[in-house]
TrEMBL record:
Entries under PANTHER family matching the protein: PRESTALK A DIFFERENTIATION PROTEIN A, PTHR43162
Stated name of the protein: Uncharacterized conserved protein YbjT, contains NAD(P)-binding and DUF2867 domains
Pfam families per the UniProt record, alphabetical: NAD_binding_10
Limits of the NAD(P)-binding domain: 7-166
Domain of life: Bacteria
SUPFAM superfamilies, sorted: NAD(P)-binding Rossmann-fold domains
Organism (species): Allokutzneria albata (Kibdelosporangium albatum)
InterPro entries tied to this protein: Ergot_Alk_Oxidoreductase, NAD(P)-bd_dom, NAD(P)-bd_dom_sf
Signal peptide: none
């Protein structure tokens, strides 16, 4: 069984690769630059670009299961090539596909739903690793400054999300399902800062910023204006569903998802 992972050099994709390798499976990775791919030696690295479907044909040969991105780039632009990619996968004999979705019903999501593939769409509501963006501020000042401090998110450990992807790809049994994948609890930013403080053994502060204070801080850090606008708009309109905990990790993998406190303990050295 050869499993193709797209986005294999990204944070989530590399975790999926590691999970599949630990389970003893043959992994092929698609990347736009094979020379720059920092992947384990056991991985077969193939160059290709999801925005140019013809470049992916070689990578799909002999593949039984596929982990597919629905969007690319830092701005998460939906892949307009979704229908062609799905058709190429079907022609190559791929039977099972997981889709990493951003939550939008884009061309990839629509194409897999219309296909005869065993598809499963997976959405990580938020990943705990996003808190690593606080590491420098915690190390140098013992403080985290952000707007919208009351927002609740049911963040998931990337390792748990990767385990869900790997289990679905290998074992099947989830065809035609769309899952929101979360951790075991919904926390505010201040809750997470307290957990990090407990992990590093010192009290940390959380300061809630106004929109204008956040703009000033992020400008000073070199953020582009469009990035600032995007983040403020996103956080101002966070739907209540991002704080709703699901049992997908336990149901799919059979193990309980890690708590944020456990994640913080495992990564404490990065905040110390």
């Amino acid at each position: 069984m050869t499993i193709l992972v797209t986005g294999a050099t990204g944070t989530i994709g590399s975790a999926v690769v590691d999970e599949l390798l630990r389970a003893g499976h043959r992994v092929r990775a698609l990347t736009r630059n094979a020379a720059a791919a920092d992947l384990p030696d056991q991985v077969e690295v193939v160059e290709g670009d999801l925005t140019e479907p013809r470049s992916v044909e070689v990578a799909l040969r002999g593949v039984t299961a596929l982990h597919l991105l629905s969007a690319t780039g830092d701005d998460h632009v939906p892949l307009a090539t979704g229908p062609r990619l799905v058709e190429l996968a079907r022609q190559a004999g791929v039977r099972r596909v997981t889709v990493l979705t951003t939550g939008a019903d884009g061309p990839v999501e629509q194409a897999v739903r219309a296909s005869d593939l065993e598809w499963t769409i997976l959405l990580p509501i938020d990943v705990m690793a996003n808190a690593l963006g606080w590491a420098e501020s915690v190390r140098t000042g013992g403080v985290v400054r952000e707007p919208y401090g009351g927002r609740l998110t049911a963040s998931v450990d990337i390792a748990d999300f990767a385990a869900v992807v790997a289990t679905v790809l290998v074992d099947g049994g989830h065809a035609g399902k769309s899952y929101r994948v979360t951790g075991p609890e919904a926390l505010t930013p201040a809750d997470k800062v307290r957990a990090i403080g407990a992990a590093v053994g010192r009290e940390l502060d959380f300061v809630e910023l106004t929109d204008e204070q956040a703009r000033e801080l992020w400008r000073a850090e070199g953020w582009p204006e469009e990035g600032i606008d995007f983040m403020l708009t996103m956080w101002a309109t966070v739907p209540p569903t991002v704080g709703v905990v699901t049992s997908v990790v336990k149901e799919v993998t059979g193990r309980s998802p890690r708590t944020f406190a456990e994640w913080a303990g495992e990564h404490a050295r990065l905040f110390a």
